[in-house]
Write a structure and sequence with these properties.
One of its GO terms (biological process) is enamel mineralization. InterPro entries: FAM20, FAM20_C. GO terms for molecular function: ATP binding; metal ion binding; protein serine/threonine kinase activity. It is a single chain. With 567 residues, this protein is of the alpha+beta class. It contains 18 helices and 15 strands. Strand 4 and strand 5 form a beta hairpin.
């Protein structure tokens, strides 16, 4: 009995010691901060200047960062924007994170107006004059000639309020003091909300001007100067906060800028020369940052304009990620590698471990930044299952892979039985084949425009993985349906000509990006080769079914822009 009591006392003592150790570990950063004095909070990591000193100060730097930040509640995103690609078939999308207290559309619109003007009055862009490299005077002449071609000068129908995503002329007022504490108030006297008039869209930050320009037919207009300005913002704006994006198989970060814009950051995982290993399944392939950049430029050259603006950026992992993040889960994954480089891995389904860590040189890392679309509270989007979605299984095949008449079933199913949706799927198929992207399981549209609108080409990171292989199965929707827009067919034929060679146009366009060269020559050559294959499939279709039954008129002279006829 005495031994049993002694054993119970021993267990109790061990338990008390363990609890004490846990308490001490939690209090250690605060105690260290007090001991260090009031100037501790002003210390900053200088990894980019003295990388050799980083390992010695790493432990203290982490303790100081944790103590200074105070680790507030779960990091929340501003209500203005969201980048949704959740695989929910035919369901209305919902925001991943909501701002506390914002429960309706009016509140969200108040924030939209506030960010528009506050972002303008507090524009403190970082001074980086080398963001866009100096180019020769005669650069981009081939690209300019393309955009001057009549096929790239077609006009849209007159836009009504139902055809634009937002109405710029709004009388909603806002509290200009709200930016001080970032809390929106619905109470107060009338004097607290002075009339501000209707500010011009030219005074809005570029990301908001991009949102305002979205309409039923395009994400942005062909010659919109806001695009170049927004691309520059993506690589020059100071990053104020960083958080991991929930969902998805690989690590992606949500970055917020000083002008309240936000972008999705995909870090570099492969070098330009690396190809997808032949034994990799498409659903376990890496997501490449340079593929996201190249996809935006390819989409614009094809005149689809359905990919949100993307730019490459060299990010300081210490100053622009670790030191500004409020995401404790992300912050805890930073470490120094044996090669004295700063690394982190975050949390995700695949490739988020020490073995697959993302490491800088010593703390600089490349990545792509994709501008956010308007938040779902302001502009709901609908997520659709791609009819030609792959099985995402190691052994099973999808129905379209075994049924040659699969397209006939699709044509009888809404929304593909009317309107232009099926033709938009063909555009997306051509776009994916040129990139070699097999990972198109879902797509999205803006809910406001119903079924008569374009498909948003989101999430293109698994493109440009193999320049030595052309995945012909991506073209199955085109070969099964034998349908294409007249405008698309004419532009593909144009891009196959020597004076408008697709690879040369891509090379010129990508020179504008900070991370040039974005694609190595073999990938550019593959674009020309795949373009010829697309045109051959369409030629076979026309020979088999006739031009009128394959090529659908959608140009102004065809008088079928908004609602193409169907067989």
């Amino acid at each position: 009995m005495i031994l049993f009591r002694k054993f119970r006392v021993l267990i109790l003592m061990v338990f008390l010691i363990a609890c004490t150790m846990h308490i001490m570990i939690d209090l250690l950063p605060k105690l260290e901060r007090r001991a260090a004095g009031p100037n501790t909070g002003n210390s900053a990591c200088s990894c980019s200047h003295r990388p050799s000193e980083e390992p010695q100060s790493w432990g203290k730097q982490r303790a100081r960062s944790g103590a200074d930040s105070g680790w507030p509640n779960k990091h929340t995103l501003r209500i203005l924007q969201d980048f949704s690609n959740e695989p929910t078939s035919n369901l209305t999308s919902h925001s991943l994170e909501k701002i506390t207290g914002s429960s309706d559309k009016t509140e969200a619109l108040k924030k939209m107006e506030h960010y528009a003007q506050n972002g303008e009055t507090k524009k403190h862009f970082i001074q980086d004059t080398n963001v866009i490299k100096n180019l020769p005077v005669k650069a981009f002449t081939r690209l300019s000639a393309l955009f001057e071609h009549p096929l790239y000068k077609t006009t849209l129908p007159p836009l009504t309020d139902e055809d634009t995503l937002f109405n710029v002329n709004t009388d909603i007022r806002f509290n200009p003091k709200a930016a001080e504490n970032q809390e929106w108030h619905n109470e107060g006297t009338e004097e607290e909300y002075p009339p501000t008039g209707e500010p011009s869209a030219d005074s809005y930050p570029n990301w908001l001007r991009f949102h305002i320009g979205v309409n039923r037919y395009e994400l942005y207009s062909r010659h919109n100067p806001v695009m170049d300005a927004l691309l520059k913002d993506l690589v020059s704006q100071r990053i104020t906060s960083v958080a991991m994006k929930s969902g998805g198989t690989q690590l992606k970060l949500i970055m917020t800028f000083q002008n309240y814009g936000q972008a999705l950051f995909k870090p570099m995982k492969q070098t330009r020369e690396q190809e997808t290993p032949p034994d990799f399944f498409y659903f376990s392939d890496f997501e490449r940052h340079n593929a996201e950049i190249a996809a935006f430029h390819l989409d614009r050259i094809l005149d689809f304009r359905r990919v949100p603006p993307v730019a490459g950026r060299l990010v300081n992992m210490t100053k622009e990620i670790r030191d500004v993040t409020r995401d404790k889960k992300l912050w805890r994954t930073f470490f120094v590698s044996p090669a004295n480089n700063i690394c982190f891995y975050g949390e995700c389904s695949y490739y988020c471990s020490t073995e697959h860590a993302l490491c800088g040189k010593p703390d600089q890392i490349e990545g792509s930044l994709a501008a956010f679309l308007p938040d779902l509270a302001l502009a709901k989007r609908k997520t659709w299952r791609n009819p030609w979605r792959r099985s995402y299984h190691k052994r099973k095949k999808a129905e379209w892979e075994v049924d040659p008449d699969y397209c006939e079933e699709v044509k009888q199913t809404p929304p593909y039985d009317s309107g232009s949706r099926l033709l938009d799927i063909m555009d997306m198929t051509i776009f994916d084949f040129l990139m070699g992207n097999m990972d198109r399981h879902h797509y999205e549209t803006f809910e406001k425009f119903g079924n008569e609108t374009f498909i948003i080409h989101l999430d293109n990171g698994r493109g440009f993985g193999k320049h030595s292989h052309d995945e012909l199965s991506i073209l199955v929707p085109l070969s099964q349906c034998c349908r294409v827009k007249k405008s698309t067919h004419l532009r593909l034929q144009l891009l196959a000509k020597e004076e408008y060679k697709l690879s040369a146009l891509m090379a010129e366009s990508l020179l504008k990006d900070r991370l040039t060269p974005v694609l190595i020559p073999p990938h550019l050559e593959a674009l020309d080769r795949r373009l010829r294959l697309v045109l051959q499939v369409l030629s076979d279709c026309i020979e088999k079914e006739g031009y009128a039954n394959v090529v659908e008129g959608d140009l102004v002279e065809d008088s079928t822009h908004t609602a193409p006829s169907r067989r």
